[in-house]
TrEMBL record:
CDD domains: M1_APN (cd09600). Residues 568-898 form the Peptidase M1 alanyl aminopeptidase C-terminal domain. Belongs to the peptidase M1 family. This is Aminopeptidase N. The keyword Zinc applies. Its cofactor is Zn(2+). Pfam families: DUF3458 (PF11940), DUF3458_C (PF17432), Peptidase_M1 (PF01433), Peptidase_M1_N (PF17900). It catalyses: Release of an N-terminal amino acid, Xaa-|-Yaa- from a peptide, amide or arylamide. Xaa is preferably Ala, but may be most amino acids including Pro (slow action). When a terminal hydrophobic residue is followed by a prolyl residue, the two may be released as an intact Xaa-Pro dipeptide. PANTHER family: PUROMYCIN-SENSITIVE AMINOPEPTIDASE. Residues 107-190 form the Aminopeptidase N-like N-terminal domain. It comes from Paraburkholderia tuberum. Its EC number is 3.4.11.2. GO terms for molecular function: alanyl aminopeptidase activity; metallopeptidase activity; zinc ion binding.
Amino acid sequence: MADTATPNLIRRADYAPPAFLIDTVALEFDLVPERTVVRNTMRVRRNPDASRAAHLELMGEQLEFVSAAIDGKPFPNAHPHEHGLLLDQVPDSFELTLTSICNPAENTTLSGLYVSSGNFFTQCEAEGFRRITYFLDRPDVMASFTVTLRASKADYPVLLSNGNLLEQGELPDGRHFARWEDPFRKPSYLFALVAGKLVALEERVKTGSGKEKLLQVWVEPHDLDKTRHAMDSLIHSIRWDEQRFGLELDLDRFMIVAVSDFNMGAMENKGLNIFNTKYVLANPETATDTDFSNIEAVVGHEYFHNWTGNRVTCRDWFQLSLKEGLTVFRDQEFSADMAGGATDEAARATKRIEDVRVLRQMQFAEDAGPMAHPVRPESYVEINNFYTMTVYEKGSEVVRMYQTLFGRDGFRNGLDLYFKRHDGQAVTCDDFRHALADANGRDLAQFERWYSQAGTPRVSVRTRYDAAQQRYSVTLRQGYGDAVPAARETQKGPLLIPFAIGLIGKDGRDLPLQLDGEAKSSESTTRVLEFTQTEQTFTFVNVGQEPLPSLLRNFSAPVIVEYDYTGEQLAFLLAHDSDPFNRWEAGQRLATRELLALAARAATGAALQFDDSVVAAFARVLTDETLSPAFRELALMLPSEAYLAEQMAESNPAAVHAARQFVRKRLANALRDDWLKVYEQHRTPGAYETTPEAAGHRALKNLALSYLTELDDSADAVRLAAAQYETANNMTDRAAALSALLNAAAPQGGSPEAQHALDDFYRRFEKEPLVIDKWFALQATQRGGARHPVIDTVRKLMTHPAFNLKNPNRARSLIFSFCAANPAQFHAADGSGYAFWAEQVIALDALNPQVAARLARSLELWRRFTPALRDSMRAALEKVAAQVKSRDVREIVEKALA
Ligand code: TRP
Ligand code: ZN
């Protein structure tokens, strides 16, 4: 590979259709951990829609080539090389049989075929199939697959692949076989096989058209008691996709398999979804409320891919958001419907708030750094680096905007047309947009910019009330701050921004809305303005009093809104806005403003003080019994340290931590009695229930506990936490109590209560890897004290017998938790965090480049930090750049340093 600044840059503009097509694939596997033989027989023909190529170039990686035959005769012109197999002078249409060998036992990349806990699994997206056999491993080559698996029956009693089981039987020497056929053509990235000692929870359900389907959740035998929730989530997903989108399950059987070694969350292989155990296994003792809702969301996500991703797939990987943005949108809507149905806006809003919080904290940061890219990227070095917040979360916001513009029905019509046109095809983001436009009789040319423009747009708002004329004008201006170099480079002109707005009167009620030129006011008190120019004024008429604007209701577009609310106005919105999202937003703005002012003072060493009116505004939320507990918990949770640091001119994690701690202590001490009361009132006695209401009570109660441990005298709170730890009948309460104990003890570097609970937790859950992950993560994210840096604990835990760098969940639980979720400790002034980061990136690079590249990203915003930290971060990045080998990590560190 050439050692240039951007080795092997792949560009969207260079797309060309494949020279050959593959119609059918018959795979035969002789599964042996160190030496699996794969025989691959394909029907190949020239692509009539492509220019004529002299030879057939198949991709292949880490394969030992054995033989090639064409139409049954040995083929001498097959030339294996590091990246694949070149076949000279092939006929126009032929049967190609290739045999090769791979080594799943030694495959620590978890891409291709690998062994985990003695069982075989595959992961093919995006380019893992080429590590299994030679192939045209690109999503616009779709084939019909038949798969024969052969293995020792004692060691691998269960043999699974995509589609339907055709036959199974015995073979000599204690071996057996199974043959599977997938009735749908698919790209190679959706291929999967699983073999091993697994058991299944089974259920039979009837779908809308009356067909019976077999559903299975496959796990290791000791995990069978943790499969019920995943199965229920699957059944709910099947029902929801029928009701909301008219999409039915198209296979007779649908399988989910859990694996403990997995790079990402889960994978939507046709009919055989493979999941990280973290997103399948749950019971009240081992999983938190957050785990339960994540499982529901991820099961939904992968199931929904069956239509948005599998039936209609991507032409090339630049179109990744076509399936991911759309499927995230679908899973978000599914979760919102499960929580609140179509009409309980307050319950739906809690899901929306959680999603927007992630978007703003992670995606906005990504969009302001060296990895910034449009939802549909223009180029990449390693596609695995582009499974990003932008492609997934911003992509979902882009899909949501169609629904905001056209309404649920218009959106549904667009989706119907999309499937009518493209079922069975590999298509582009443009095809999707055209279907939405045509179904709604709209020209969406301008909307295309959401796909091609990087950076977070800023919308600044000016308002003017003319009392004499009773007119209220709202002037919107869109652009990008200076902080977005990526946006400057690609700027294409103004975006079509659906900007939802409401006007609030002095009594806190919404005013009727009538735009200039309209005959009467509309029924709804929220209006979606179509904001299409760089600057545009919208004038409301018959406005009898000066209103307070509620801007970007329900976060109707992924933008930053700039408007100079006073503190009083924000407190008023927090108390009255009819849009629950904006109520929460007002509190966040209020808190962010105060926290940033405090952080600026902390950075200069000045004394901190806090406005009592802000305390009062929060107190009102805390004690407002008309608000759901889940909403109150969200409203009272301060913006994260990472988000706050990102808002500073120069990120200063220590100052942000000091400011946030100061406010937490202030709120704790000022509202002591309220926190105690809330803690008592929101206990959930009796058997554990997973309902959103019960989870809301637990969330608010545990927030109260965490504030109580901030009290100047926290002895009572420590007793409460210790008691909660001992008596908890569920993991949400137990983990929250442990976390409270750890943080209460942070200043002294530990306490007997915290140590006792930590030891007990380990012993109690020694046999539950997902719970031990929590044990590592809680310690890595604990607060630490001035003389008790968390890095010491982390380094010690790296040598714990239960630590294992090869297992991504475990590596994430300790290393990522520290480097990406404990900013004040990670960014310690002595650079100890960065040195640790460099060591771990280098170590992971040799084992698992995908995971290493994710970790590498925790330093990408280095230029935005204070000068001393910046220098120290640059040194760490340079050290890593000099030593790593994988394309994955090199792309990240080279972009960061460029
Ligand atoms: N398509 C998967 C999803 O979003 C993502 C995924 C799972 C993945 N495993 C991966 C992407 C490995 C890249 C590499 O549902
Ligand atoms: Zn997905």
